[in-house]
Design goal:
Elements: E1 5-7, E2 12-13, H1 14-22, H2 28-35, H3 45-52, H4 58-64
Length: about 90
């Protein structure tokens, strides 16, 4: 079994990041919310951004259609939780 670690601090693999993305975590901050990846040293944030890419995002598409945050599954962090930056998490401009 070959595991490709994205976040060494918390042992998060590329497969886990992709699974979280399929479940609706579309940004590095949302990945951090569900897995802690990117919240310690922050060196994996760019790698997470690369994995997420600019592909489709069910949560983003729902919000763009006017579904609002209330229509999003309870699996994700509550609205406003994204504004609080976990320690070390940085998003590129």
């Amino acid at each position: 079994m070959n595991r490709v670690y994205v976040c060494s601090c918390f042992g998060i693999t590329e497969k886990q990041v992709k699974e979280h993305a399929e479940a609706g975590a579309c940004t590095p901050r949302q990945i951090a919310s569900v897995s802690k990846a990117g919240t310690d040293c922050g060196s994996c944030v760019r790698r997470i951004q690369g994995i997420l890419g600019r592909g489709s995002c069910p949560r983003r598409e729902l919000l763009e259609r006017g579904g609002g945050a209330g229509a999003v599954s309870g699996e994700m962090a509550p609205v406003g939780a994204e504004a609080a930056s976990p320690g070390g998490l940085r998003e590129a401009a």
